[in-house]
Amino acid sequence: MIKNTENIADKKGAEKIISIYWFFILFIVAGGVIYMVILFYGEPYDVREIEANLLVNSIADCISEAGFLREQVLNKEFRDNFLEVCRINFNVEDFQEWKNEEQYYLHASFYNFDTESFIFDISEGNINLEEFCKEQYKGQKNNPVCISRSFYSLDKQGGKYKINIIGAVRKTEKNAR
Amino acid sequence: MTIKNKKRADILVENIIFIVLNLIFLSILVFFIFSKTSSAAVLEEAYAKQIALMIDSAKPGTRLILNMEDAFNEVAAGFAGDIVSIDNDNNLVTVKLREKGGYTYSFFNDLKISAVSGKEKGEYVFFIE
User: Fold this and answer.
1) Residues of B with CB below 8 A from A44's CB?
2) ipTM metric
3) Between chain A's N and C termini, which has fewer beta carbons within 10 Å?
């Protein structure tokens, strides 16, 4: 009889320990879930790569249409008013001194397709961002994102051109933490 | 007989308390996750960036329709302003779901954009000229 009572008491004690242990595990799991949710949703959405791609596409569309170089591209006036003609504006919000440093950079260089000789180039925005187009800086989230692309185009006289376009977007504070 | 019944009742009460505590705990956890994933701040940022990218990819003459049902549902009580506002002079899009808050993101496409609210359908229409 005494043995039986002891067994019941032991069982009850063990159940209490299991309960405490259970809640301890539950708190650890909940803590992990909360930490991961905060970590995931606390990070800003990084859209710079898409933005840089869109910038490059936009420039390519402005320079060439259906595989042919737009006639005015070869004029000096086009190059001087490149942003205006291509309807691109590098204005940004006044956020953490973004106004003092341009957040975009673009560079289009034209080469003769046959001889590969340099003809001319167009450059706009923050030239310091070009540094981040080097391989060593790619993939680091706190660096500006840089996209480069090449394509071929013809002018109306049959002249062949190779065009390299580089587009870079900084906006680090709103896209990476 | 009475002792046996009391013991059974004790076990039942203990188990019920244990289950209720677990349920409360898990409910709080689920509520936290839902509040985080659909919070106004997260939606503001997501929509502002999405709209800016949509504008950047658009050509003149485009009409864009964006489903913003969850944003309309999340608008804070007492806030009667426009959810989306476009500043064509500075190329900025602002999404605002509460009085004290809002998220602004810039776009580079220098076109004239107008945003029209379609609250009934839970969408916003953007005209790009």
Assistant:
1) 45
2) 0.79
3) N
* Contact indicator for B104, B93 with CB cutoff of 8 Å: yes
Q: Which neighbouring-strand residues pair with B118?
A: B123
pLDDT, one tens digit per residue, over A144-158 is 999 999 999 998 888
* Helix, strand, coil percentages, rounded to 5, for chain B: 45, 25, 30
Q: Do the beta carbons of residue A80 and residue A91 sit within 8 Å?
A: no
pLDDT at A88: 92
Judging contacts by C-beta atoms under 8 Å, the chain A residues touching residue B8 are none
* Average confidence (pLDDT) over B83-100: 92
Residue A54 is nearest to which of B32, B56, B91, comparing CB atoms?
B56
**Model confidence over B11-61: pLDDT tens digits?**
778 788 888 888 998 898 888 888 877 788 889 999 999 999 999 999 999
Tokens of B7: 């013991």
- The residue of chain A nearest to residue B91, with distances taken between CA atoms, is A91
Tell me the two tokens of residue A85.
Answer: 């003609």
Closest by Cβ to B90, choosing from A38, A57, A91 = A91
Average pLDDT over residues B76-90: 87
Strands B92-95 and B103-106 come out as antiparallel
- Residues in B closer than 8 angstroms to A90, CB to CB, are 108
Q: How distant is the Cα of A143 from the closest Cα of chain B, in angstroms?
A: 19
pLDDT-flagged residues of chain A (< 50): 1-3
Closest among A106, A89, A81, A117 to A165, alpha carbons compared: A106
Task: Check CB contact under 8 Å for B108 and A33.
Answer: no
pTM for the full predicted model: 0.80
